[in-house]
Design goal:
By secondary structure, the protein is of the alpha+beta class. The chain folds into three domains: 32-195, Beta-Lactamase (2-Layer Sandwich); 272-382, Helix Hairpins (Orthogonal Bundle), CATH 1.10.287.130; 386-545, Heat Shock Protein 90, CATH 3.30.565. The protein has 13 helices and twelve strands. The strands form three sheets. It has a five-stranded antiparallel β-sheet with strand order 2-1-5-4-3, with helices on one face. A five-stranded mixed β-sheet has the order 7-9-10-12-11. Helix 2 (16-71) packs antiparallel against helix 3, helix 6 packs parallel to helix 7 (255-343) and helix 11 (428-444) packs antiparallel against helix 13. The structure holds adenosine-5'-diphosphate (ADP) and magnesium ion. Adenosine-5'-diphosphate (ADP) binds at residues 437, 441-442, 445, 470, 472-473, 475, 479, 483, 488-491, 498-504, 527.
């Protein structure tokens, strides 16, 4: 699991996204709430003012309607008018009281004859105890209150004594009287209040809606412009941290994040390159170590082989030297005996049999002699004659010697001899013997015919390379390991049995010339021997071994 996002989840309340979204939403919510409160307040004021103006206007109209009846001191007419108005509009209540506070007219009949409370809120403004009775300006004539839980607006309208009143025929009011009474109008503003509440609710609803919309917009913007790029960056960095150097930031919409992402991508590229280089170096190093290990192993095997060959060579030299003379005597004596018995003209069957035994002794002793001379050759107990030699000529001679054997085995020669081959300082007889031994083995490895490829090339460092290759049976690893050991042979019993000395002798010869011999072979794939001979053996090389 990715540890970074888990940590981010744990610290979500501290995240930039959370704080940015939270702050923006709170700020906008406060702003909207403030606006709503102000709006509601303003609207309430407007509604009140409208109600007040409306109330005043209505009171003036009512006053006008009642004016004539009052002027004529027509109490009945006044009553009828008041009834008519209040019945027509149940939201209007009227009463008229005189200067002393006695209610003389009222839309509520039970009030008639009663007295208004001068200390009541309606009267208080003009009749404050410690102030003389004053005339109220129109703005102060209205008041809001509740009647039985219903919102209402009251308007006080003083009925001044006009000249028309004092001069009227009824002479009810002397001219000295300034105020005749008060018209008190109560208007129920239930509908207006309901409309105002509805508007307020509508406004609050609209504010809530706008707030929701704003929250949506804020969430959308913050999510796309902040949260997503930050998450993408975090994931990229987490992947890089865990070693995935191919991770890249791919959200380039917001310029700041695009710039940051670009830098992260450049860093990732550099890391990827460095990592690839490191991996490359590690692989090269591993490869080189493997190469060197193989070289070392080869060198060690070569050393072991050289040592084994050297001790074998010494042993072979002693044995060969010791056996050579007695063997020569055996051959000589058996030949003398054979000659003597052969002159006996009438030899019997027994003599013939003895003669055959003597022949066998001579031939086997001759074979032993061959082994001994080969052993001496391998152990370098015979002297060598070094001279500048044309290797191509040596090869031609060797191939001529085995031509008959090749024809019998149906082995086709395939020669590719370099024309510019420099002369090599060597013993031509020994090199010829080595080439011969390799070619004989090659032909023997192709009992059903095949190709005997012989190539010479100029080789570095200054030397000559001889390649002798066949398309024969090949060898497996077990055989390949032992082929240079004296007496190692896979060629079984009988007439054509091998001595197992051919490659041992070749090895000895190559060693004496400071050269190298390599073999490449797979079962069924043929075999390739590669000889390298330096143009001149290093001083002391010929003497060693
Ligand atoms: N060209 C070759 N193809 C297959 N096997 C080979 C070849 N040359 C040598 N060998 C193997 O190496 C062994 C040793 O060869 P050598 O020393 O010449 O002894 P010999 O030929 O008497 O067996 C052979 O018996 C054979 O198994
Ligand atoms: Mg051989």
């Amino acid at each position: 699991m990715n540890p970074q996002p888990a940590a981010m989840r744990r610290w979500r309340s501290r995240s930039l996204t959370f704080r940015l979204t939270g702050t923006l939403i709170i700020a906008l919510a406060l702003l909207l709430a403030l606006t709503a409160v102000v709006q509601v307040g303003l609207q309430e004021r407007c509604a009140r003012e409208a109600a007040r103006i409306n109330g005043l206007a209505m009171s003036e109209t009512l006053y006008g309607a009642l004016h004539t009846a009052m002027l004529n001191n027509d109490r009945e007419g006044l009553h009828a008018s008041v009834r008519n108005i209040t019945e027509h509009d149940p939201d209007v209540r009227l009463r008229i009281f005189n200067k002393e506070g006695n209610i003389v007219f009222s839309s509520e009949p039970r009030e008639l004859g009663t007295k208004v409370d001068m200390r009541s809120e309606a009267c208080f403004k003009c009749h404050q105890a410690d102030r003389p009775i004053s005339k109220l300006p129109p703005g102060d004539r209205t008041r809001s209150f509740e009647v039985g839980g219903k919102p209402a607006m009251g308007v006080i309208l003083p009925i001044d004594n006009e000249p028309a009143c004092s001069n009227a025929s009824c002479h009810a009011h002397p001219a000295s009287k300034r105020l005749l009474g008060v018209l008190d109008v109560t208007l129920f503003v239930t509908q207006l209040e309901r409309a105002r509440r509805q508007t307020t609710l509508l406004m609050l609803g609209a504010t809530g809606g706008v707030l929701l919309l704003v929250v949506g917009v804020v969430l959308f913007v913050v999510r796309n412009s902040v949260h997503r790029p930050i998450t993408a960056l975090t994931h990229t960095l987490a992947a890089l941290g865990m070693g995935d150097y191919s991770a890249r930031y791919e959200n380039g919409e917001i310029s700041e994040f695009a710039y940051l992402g670009n830098s992260v991508n450049k860093m990732a590229q550099a890391l990827e390159r460095a990592n690839a280089e490191l991996v490359g170096w590690a692989q090269t190093l591993e490869h080189r170590v493997e190469e060197k290990t193989a070289e070392l192993r080869q060198a060690q095997e070569q050393m072991v082989r050289v040592e084994r060959m050297a001790s074998l060579g010494k042993l072979a030299a002693v044995v060969a030297h010791e056996i050579n003379n007695p063997l020569a005597s055996v051959v000589t004596y058996s030949k003398v005996l054979m000659r003597r018995w052969a002159t006996r003209a009438k030899a019997g069957d027994e003599t013939k049999e003895n003669l055959q035994i003597l022949e066998a002794i001579a031939s086997e002793s001759t074979r032993c002699g061959e082994i001994v001379s080969n052993l001496l050759l391998f152990a370098r107990r015979t002297g060598s004659r070094m001279e500048p030699t044309d290797i191509n000529q040596v090869i031609d001679r060797a191939l001529f010697l085995i031509k008959h054997k090749m024809d019998l085995a149906q082995a086709r020669p395939d020669l590719s001899l370099a024309a510019d081959l420099p002369p090599v300082m060597c013993d031509p007889a020994q090199i010829e013997q080595a080439v011969l031994a390799l070619c004989i083995n090659a032909v023997e490895a192709m009992p059903n015919g095949g190709r005997l490829i012989v190539r010479t090339t100029v080789a570095d460092p200054s030397g000559v390379r001889i390649v002798i290759e066949d398309t024969g049976v090949g060898m497996d690893e077990d055989v390949r390991k032992h082929i240079f050991e004296p007496f190692f042979t896979t060629k079984g019993e009988g007439e054509g049995r091998g001595l197992g000395l051919g490659l041992a002798v070749v090895y000895g010869i190559v060693q004496r010339h400071n050269g190298t011999i390599d073999v490449a072979s797979e079962p069924g794939q043929g075999t390739r021997f590669t000889l390298f001979l330096p143009l001149a053996p290093a001083p002391g090389g010929e003497a060693s071994g």
